[in-house]
Design a protein that fits this description.
With about 350 residues, the protein is mainly β. It folds into 5 domains: about 60 residues, Complement Module, domain 1; about 45 residues, Ribbon (Complement Module, domain 1); about 60 residues, Complement Module, domain 1, CATH 2.10.70.10; about 60 residues, Complement Module, domain 1; about 70 residues, Ribbon (Complement Module, domain 1). Helix content is about 5%, strand content about 35%. It has 3 helices and 31 strands. The strands form 12 sheets. The protein has a 5-stranded antiparallel sheet with strand order 28-27-29-30-31, with no helix packed on it. Strands 2-4-6 form a 3-stranded antiparallel sheet, with no helix packed on it. The chain has a 3-stranded antiparallel sheet with strand order 8-9-11, with no helix packed on it. The longest helix is centred in the N-terminal third of the chain and has 9 residues. Keywords: Disulfide bond, Glycoprotein, Heparin-binding, Membrane, Repeat, Secreted, Signal, Sushi. Pfam families: Sushi, Sushi_2. This is Beta-2-glycoprotein 1. InterPro entries: ComplSys_Reg/VirEntry_Med (IPR051503), Sushi/SCR/CCP_sf (IPR035976), Sushi_2 (IPR015104), Sushi_SCR_CCP_dom (IPR000436). Binds to various kinds of negatively charged substances such as heparin, phospholipids, and dextran sulfate. May prevent activation of the intrinsic blood coagulation cascade by binding to phospholipids on the surface of damaged cells.
């Protein structure tokens, strides 16, 4: 006993070194996607651990085991796990999808275009088995029933309609049967809410007998009320010309459309000289009767004294007034009778 005690006292360093030369290993620090089969925190030298991938991940390199060495470190490994891929998704007809990736735990968001309702899940997640959690949803067209028809009215669709339903976006135009007038929006549409836009009304509209126009006459003098869209025609007496529409119509607000007016003819206010009227060049005394109608154009001749040449100037009859251009000079009786060849209309033109 004393001998062993003496040896222990003489060689304490050797004994301690022998006991502590083999170190254990702490639990390995691995990628978050890698699984280790056991849960303990410390491992003896020589212990071998099997590595595997968590659900949703696939191994891409090895080795798949590590060993605790006597130095307290684990053997090296290039073992990696990559996320599993799901197939590229399809867009639903009349819809759209939004996603950033197709790897495990990625999410797809589905939406439908305007006028369509989503049938199915609006989201889908890439699962651990490489499939999507939900099938592609459907985008079902929004429909409306047939639109209400106002009393004394009708609707004309922009496309053919069959049955008792109409698809989103279909439009129609309301019309009223005379003598009823439409009050409200004439265009109807099947909306995203599955209802039609507001229905207009058909109301009876009448107009009282209008007044006659100056120097004119009407096609009727019936002392009665005239229905919406009824018409009356106007004319002018004598040589007066109608300016505006020959016909007025009873409007939706119970008033008549704008009435025409009768415009007077004009006399050409020169006594000597030539005129140009409707392509004909003639002496004023031969122009009988001396009268042109409202908006008719007449030309007279003026003299360019500097260049000794003549030129024509046009003027227009406006409701009985025809202004003679200031440049026009009435020739003297002698020049007009004996020397008409010297008049601006007869000499060389500028």
């Amino acid at each position: 006993m004393e001998r062993w005690l003496t040896l222990l006292l003489l060689f304490p360093v050797l004994f301690f070194s022998t006991v502590t030369s083999a170190k254990g290993c702490r639990r390995p620090q691995l990628n978050a996607n890698i699984n280790v089969a056991v849960d303990q925190m410390f491992f003896d030298p020589g212990v071998e651990l099997a590595l595997s991938c968590k659900d949703g991940y696939t191994p891409i390199s090895g080795p798949r085991t590590i060993v605790c060495t006597t130095s307290g470190a684990w053997t090296a490994t290039k073992f990696l796990c990559k996320p599993k891929l799901c197939p590229y998704p399809d867009s639903p007809p009349n819809g759209d999808l939004y996603y950033e990736d197709t790897v495990y735990q990625s999410t797809i968001n589905y939406t439908c275009q305007e006028g369509y309702i989503l049938s199915g899940s609006s989201t889908s997640v890439c699962q651990a088995n490489g499939t999507w959690s939900s099938p592609v949803p459907e985008c079902i067209a929004m429909t409306c029933g047939l639109p209400p028809i106002p009393e004394f009215g009708m609707i004309v669709y922009n496309t053919r309609v069959r049955g008792n339903t109409t698809d989103y976006g279909i439009t129609g135009t309301y019309k009223c049967l005379p003598p009823y007038a439409l009050f409200g929006d004439a265009t109807a549409e099947c909306t995203t809410s599955g209802t039609w836009t507001k229905t207009p009304e058909c109301r009876r509209v009448t107009c009282s007998l209008p007044e006659n126009i100056d120097r004119g006459y009407m096609s009727t003098n019936d002392q009665r009320d005239f229905d919406y869209l009824e018409t009356i025609k106007y004319g002018c007496t004598g040589d007066y010309i109608v300016e505006g529409s020959l016909q007025i119509v009873c409007q939706q607000d119970g008033t008549w459309s704008e009435k025409p007016s009768c415009k007077a003819p004009c006399k050409i206010g020169i006594d000597k000289g030539r005129i140009l009227y409707k392509g004909n060049k003639m002496w004023i005394e031969d122009f009988k009767p001396n009268k042109v109608f409202h908006k008719d154009i007449v030309s007279v001749w003026c003299m360019n004294n500097a260049r000794k040449c003549g030129y024509s100037v046009s003027t227009q009859c406006i409701d009985g007034r025809l202004m003679i251009p200031e440049c026009y000079e009435e020739p003297s009786g002698i020049n007009y009778t004996l020397n008409s060849g010297s008049l601006p209309s007869e000499i060389q033109q500028c």
